[in-house]
Each structure stands twice: as C-alpha cells, then as structure tokens.
What does this fold into?
Amino acid sequence: MLLAACSPDNSIQQDIPGDWVMGKLNDKVFYPATVPGCVHLDLMENNVIDDPFYGDNEYKLQWISETNWEYNTRFRAGEDIMLKDHIEMVFEGLDTYAEVWLNDTMIIKADNMFRRWRADVKGLLDTSENRLKVIFYSPLTINNNKAAQLLYTLPDNRAFTRKSPYQFGWDWGPEFVSCGIWKPVYLRGWDKFRIARVHVEYTSIDEDPLPIFVHLTIESEADQSVRIRLFDDERGKRLAYEKVKLEQGTNTIILQASIQDPELWWPAGLGGQKIYSLHASVSAGGYMDEATARFGIRQIELIREPDQYGESFFFAVNGLPVFMKGANYVPQDNFLPRVDSARYEKLIGSVQEAGMNMLRVWGGGFYENDIFYDLCDKYGILVWQDFMFACTMYPGDEAFLENVRQEAIDNVSRLSNHPCIAVWCGNNEIDEGWHNWGWQQQLGYSKKDSAKIWNDYLNIFHELLPGVVEVCDPGTVYWPSSPMTGWGREEAYTQGDVHYWGVWWGEEPFSMYREKVGRFVSEYGFQAMPPMETIRSFGGIGNEPSSGTRTGSPGEVNFWETMVWEIADSSGYPVAHILEAHQKHPRGTELIQKYMEREFIIPKKFEDYVYVSQVLQAEGMGQAYITHRISQPYCMGTLYWQLNDCWPVTSWAGLDYYGRWKALHYHVKRAYAPFMVGSIRDDNGLHVFALNDQTAAAELKLQCRLTDFYGNIVKQDDKLLDLPPQSNQRVYLLEDLPEETNDKVFIAKLLLGDSVVSQCFHYFVPTKDMLLTDAGLTFYVEAASDGPLLILKTKNLARQVFLDAADLTGRFEDNFFDMAAGEERRLRFYGKASPDELNDKLTIKSIYETY
It folds into this structure.
C-alpha cells in the first residue's frame, strides 16, 4: 500500500529534441545537425564534404579540425519536469573543448571527452521556448597554446587534451580531430532525493546464501528519513529493507543482502554467464526513486608470484587459472556516434565465434559504450580495460590531475558492476616509452625536467588512478602500465606482460615468435591488406596508373612504383597514392613486401598480392598462437594486435572496418579452439602437442600422417589420447624426417568421436620452395535447411584455399585453409544466397594459382 501511494515519477528525464543546426562559429550559414553526432558526419550528411574515408580526402579535410564550430537548438521543457524541485541538464559526452549556453547563460565549460557534464538549470529554463547553444573550440589550437606554456616539450601535444588519442592519427588510423555532442543530452528532474548509483560488492564467492553489500549513492535536498528496499528482479523476492537518515548532499548507504543458490559468472568456454538484476527503491513522504543494477558473481585475481623463471602473470577466475585468448580492440570508427548496436553485435559475435575469452580495450581509444560491456558480459569475454593514456608523457598540473580524477570516477563507477571487467590498466606503453624510446635525449630534458615529468607520471599512474579504482571498484586489480618492461630487455619475458614487436618493427623472422615467449603476451602483430571489396570501397583501384607519392631519399628507387606496377594487371591498376593514403605505417608497404619475399613467390596480379598478404599475416602470426598456447603454464595469455579497424586500411587487424574476416581471423578461430593440435620442429624432430582448455577431461583420437603432396603416405600413426582438463601435452614425436622435404607435409588431426576438432599442417620449407602443383579443386553447392552447403574436393595438396563470394553478402564458416590430397570438406555459407547464386558467384584459388 505504501509503494502504491508513492509516485514512481520522482526522477524523470526528457531528451532534448533533435532539431539541431550547426555551422562555423560566428558564421551565418547553418546546416541541419544530428545529436548525438559529430561535425564531420553533419558536414557529410549536408553534402558540404565528401566521404572522409574515400580516396585521399583525409588530407583535404584537415581544415575542419582547425575550425571552431557551434550547435544550436530550441526546445520546450515539459510541464512535468518544470514542476520538479531540481532540474539538471546532462551531457553524457561533449567532444571536447566546449561552452554550453542556455538562454544566454553559460552553464558548462567542458574540457574532457570522457566525462559526463551536468548543470543545475532550475532557474534558467523558460516555460515557453529555450535556446541552447554549444560552442566547440579546436583542440589543435589549444594544444599548441598549452605546449607553449611549458618550460619543456612533451613527446606529443595530444597529451594536453582529454580526447581519444587515435583521432589525432595513429599508424593504422587517419587524422580526424572531430568535435560534437557525441552522446545523448537530456534534462533530468527530481524531488527530495534521487539514486545516483548502485554498486554491488561481495567478499567471497563460496558461501550459500551469498552475502552481498549494496552501495547506494543518494543525493538528498535536505536531512530526511527514507525507506530503502532491495529486490531480486528475476525472482521477485525482497532482499533487504531498511530505514535510514539522509543528510543534505551526497550520501553513501551500504545495505547487506544475500543471494540463495548463487550461480557464478564464467569466461567463455568454462561455464555460464549468469547476470543478476537488483532493483533498489528509496521512498519517503509520497515520493519514490528507483534504480536497477545488473551484476555477475565472480572472483578475478591477477596472480604474480615468484617462480624459477621470474614472476608469474596470469588471471585466476573463481580460483581457476585461465589462459587468455584474445586480441587488442580499437574503436570501430573515427566517427563514434555512427557505431550502432548492430555493429557491436556483429563484432562481439565474431569475437565469440573465434573462441576468444578476453579483449584488451586499448588506451588510445575511448571508454566504450555500455552495449560493448553488456555484450562482453553476455558472451563471457573478459575485458582488460586501459585508462585512456597512450605512448606519451602527460602534464601534471592540478587542473589536469583533477580533470583526470573526475574522468576516472565517472568511468570506473559506470563500469564497476560488469563481471567482464578483469583489470584496470593505467596506460599503454608509457613506462616502456620513458625508459626505452629515448625521449629524454631527443627532447633535451635536463635532470630537473626529467624528474618533474617522471614525478607527474607517478602521480597519475601510481597514485591517482589506483586510488580511484580502490574506492570505486575495490574488487578489481589495477596494473600501472602495459607493459612494465620493453621487449628489448630480457626481463620482459620473465615477468609482467610484454608487447613483442621484434617481428614487424624489428624485422625479425616469424620463427622468433617461438623464442620470444613472455608470461603474458599482450601485444604482437603483423600487417595485411584488407579484402578487395574494401579496397574498391575507398577507391584503391582505378583505371589508370598513377605515380606514387612515397619516395625515398635522393637516389633511391620509388619502392611503391617498382612493386605495384609489376603486380598490376588488366583488372585495374592500383592507384598508388590512394593505397598509400590508406597505409599509415611509415614502412608498412615495404615490410609486407620484405616478409613476403622470405616466404612466398611474389604474385603478379594485384588481387593475388592482396590475398597472399593476408595469408602471410595469418600464417606468420599463427606461429605465435601455437607457441603461446603450448607454453602453458609459463605463458598464460596471448592478445594479438589487433582485432579490428576504425576505417578501411592496410593494418594489423583480423576484422576489417566493415567487419569482413581477413585470413587472420579464420586462423585465430582455429588456433583458439578449445581442443587444439599444433607442431614445432627442433633439432630432435617434429613435436606434436595437444591441448584441452575445457574443465572436463576428454578422450580424443590423434591421427598423424607424413605424406607427399599427392597423398602418398610416407609414415602414419594413430593413438588414443586422454587429455586432462586444462592440459597441454606433447603427444607425438616424429624423429626420422625425410631427406627431400619440399614436396612433403606432416598432418596431425584431433578427433572427438568421428569429428575433426583440430588439425595442423606442418611444412618443412618456405612456401616459395615447395613443389606445389595444380590441386585439382572441384566443388558443388547443395541446399540445406540452414543455408547453402558447399562440398569442396581436392585431388592434390591445396595451400590456403580461398573461397571468394565477394558479390554476395555473407561468408563461409571457414576459409583460408589447407586441404590434404584427396580431402573433401563440407562448409556452410552464412548469408542470403541460393545454391544457384552461390554456385555462379563463387571463385576459388589456392597459392598455386598465384604463380
């Protein structure tokens, strides 16, 4: 009866309507605008600019970042919200330097993209029409002004602005320093009190019923008594009831409750992902406010203990050591407001399908939207969450530190209930950069300068940020910097996490992945070109050749010209400067070529070159996946660089900007399978390893065959395996290798019942030295209840079979795979296509066809 007497509308929200206009500051020309949005998207929508991602438009649009902009709208506040005692205007995100004016009064001066901004507007709103204006100032100008005020030079001026660092450009992303109201804006009204936050903690996961401690942050307009009730939404059961006295201002109330028969949340592959929903209500004097918190019950520990090698570094979930299989995640777009829920679902679906259990949200992007973490909760994907600091030193003045503190409080508080959050990490590569990248010498720091800059670093990453985590998310571990030791030092491989870039940056061979194994490898990678459909989408293929813009020092040959024109063919010439505009690494094209020359015969056709670049990336990095997994428990994590792209580009990603799977992602799906077989060769022979990531033992069959490329068997062995849970075993050794190996392959298969759950192909020479022949691939397509079914057969060995249905929307369940002589494979097509359409559109190639 009491609840029925209370108003459920104590706290209400009104979105600001969408009739916005935008234009240059102090200009008379305005265009319709979308909020949430950003200036680049609005200009493109109004045909003021062309697609920023097309061709080399990036270079033509830098004026946008150098310009100040304004957004305007008019709105009426609803009668119900005008009656509230307290009315706030809330901006969930302003990017970045902004003034907000309501009816000619400035109510907000923002300087942080990552914070929520709010202002009391109770006395400023008119009952009729209200004018709202938001002015955005160029971060480039402000950065330069702030840099000029310092007595020393920081490595990068982007450090002065709390804005996504990648938007200033990276070695895989363009420079689009956008601005705008990038998250929702609304009015929020309330009477007497309101619930600002609900946070759930527990000190143990082993009790039944499980005690939980619910922290409610309540804002109260006066000293008053209230009743607080907690309910289990799913079971409809009241968990707690208490009368408390609130003081005027912000109150933190802790209530204890319990959960009967608690179900634990587990990472993917180890158990379920139970999410609880807790409903809180606060009531008094006929008023009531409500809030809901969703949470999971799990315990995540980062185990760092001395051992015979150095110090361990692994995550234990609910007491179980877990090998982390995943990737580094970057923002999905340079223009964040257009990443909708469908794109999030598609991306995290690809993560789940590839068998991952962890993503690292890299510190050069942004604190992701709630839907990202909701999906990670749902699918059991743990999140290594960086704070948004990367690859430079930062200022340490009081205003900057307080800005960072509020940013951290906003985001740690927002995300603390998510069971997917495994670790908060202070920054990306700054500790390594300070000690190994030569900044002090390059920038001429004095001892006093160095001491000041390093002290500022310690204040942020060893005091401020861990302090916020301890208060706002005390159950989650904090790690100061990824990594704490650079890859050029031996101790990087015996303790902490490591970013190994000897392959690629150091031009070391792929075989070094087998030697440079860390305790937790949180970055490593290699580039490849995106699919041909993506290259066509940004104009990377034209009808006429164009001279390249990338030139070397005087006297050197223009590398891009000498390489590209040799591989151009009648399908259309690559327009060199456009392709290079979508290759942001200063030596990326050259390095792909160098590594390809080591492993493959360079194709003459451009589309073949694109295909082989992807195979090169996938097979090269495959040596890392296998090595890291069979090195358990010494190595307990492999997170490659990188999962995805923010625009169409040649990069390290396995998923391109459109979510298309490159060869890498198909290889990752096989390498991260719960059962895996892999091989490594040394002076003693060929070692075969079998892994079982699951929590139950498994009986499997191992088939080993040494054959030639025509299917003639040189040696074969079968054996039964009893793999314990979470085990890694050497299960076979091939000691007597044939003298002639350029036409031989060793194939190992793991079978669960009659199904092949993993297989590996081991070759003894680089692909360019193999005596490959026409594989004799044939196929036909059948109708099936879940879509077209491809039946593929080969007469001889087929290397890296590529199924290309580019004109159809969809993909195959597997692609870029080897087939043994005489093998048949049956593959589903995920997409809208009839068997006849697929049969007509499908093209198939292997490495042999690129010669």
Summary: The chain has 18 helices and 46 strands. The two ends are 81 Å apart (CA to CA). Residues 66 and 287 are 50 Å apart (CA to CA). Residues 1-7, 543-574 have pLDDT under 50 and may be disordered.
